[in-house]
Amino acid sequence: MNPFKLLKRSRTLSSGSWSPFIWAGSGRPLNNSTQITPRQALVNSDVFAVVNRVSSDVAGCTVEAPMYQQLFKKPWGNLLTRYSLLQSITVQMMIRGNAYVWIHRKGGKITGLEPIPFNNVVVNLNDEGTDVAYTISLPDSDRKQQVVVKSDDMLHFKLFLSGEADTQYMGISPLDALVDELNLQDQANKLSLASIIHSLAPTYTLTIPQGKLNPASKENIRKSFEAQTSGDNAGRAIVLDQSATLDELKSSSDLSPLLDDAKYIQTQIAKAFCIPDEYLNGQGDQQSSTDQIRSLYQNSLTLYIQPIEAEFTSKLGFPVHLDVTNAVDIDHQGLIDNMATLTSDGVLSANAAQQILIDRGAFPELTQIDDRIPSDTTAEGSEDDGQSNRLPNA
Length: 394
Prior knowledge:
The protein is of the alpha+beta class.
């Protein structure tokens, strides 16, 4: 018997982060940092805005999965809808780099999709390095406290794989690229608040030309002055004798440098999550048109949609597609404009454009092709009344 056969070289994979996510604590210098959880990161309004916007738009996608339409209507009983499931997956990928959904089967048929919190999952690589198993902790359940799930029964969504040894099979969160920026923003917010408070409530000094005063005397003079300027005396004239001089300490109210820093950090956050910064700070490139911004944002969403589609398709065994059109073009105006352009340029006939609009539900009242609209473009040289290529009004 070879004793070395009993040795196992399976290992637990890293969570996916390159380095601990750090945050400067209140009142502490930047070089004295502590670790922060992604939940704490969501307290940052800019990070929350990006995560909320992207996850909501991905969750609003139409799921095209002919074999699993019923499953996606109620993925986990009455606890989750399709929208909730897709949103939780996207949020976990954005703040953790990884998201886990347990596939429940009964008699070979998929009966449910249960999201598992990131902290409740340990990923183990097998001896050959060809597969993984997932150890799930279920402390608040009547089920076993720990369950080992094979990879075929676990949907593992990964946002970004670096190929590095420690994170070879695990996703990485964009938050890892924002450590310095969020630290800086935390300190800038504190400085901005202090500056505003001081600019709105300037302090005063009382000078008493009587030599050196002991602390008790200073406190008595301070209390006497405060009594004259507060309570029932607020707003009344201040009366001082000739032994006291009142001076005001003015602070600068110019906060433009701090505001510029805030806009810079917002741009960095948007860049890390690969979305146009117009969606975060409301400005960005002022020369960009609305259509260009929407197109850039829609392309950015594919970075989050494609990992979800690929994992669903791989583990469920049938193609799953997320159509983002309805999520980013709610009023179908972008689709209508494209159809009008393609029709007027002769790329599509009016009938073909109508059929696309019917299929997408752009005009609820348009249920069949209107033959009154010419399907061919007006012949060259003939009189055009301007209506030949127009689509029906909404």
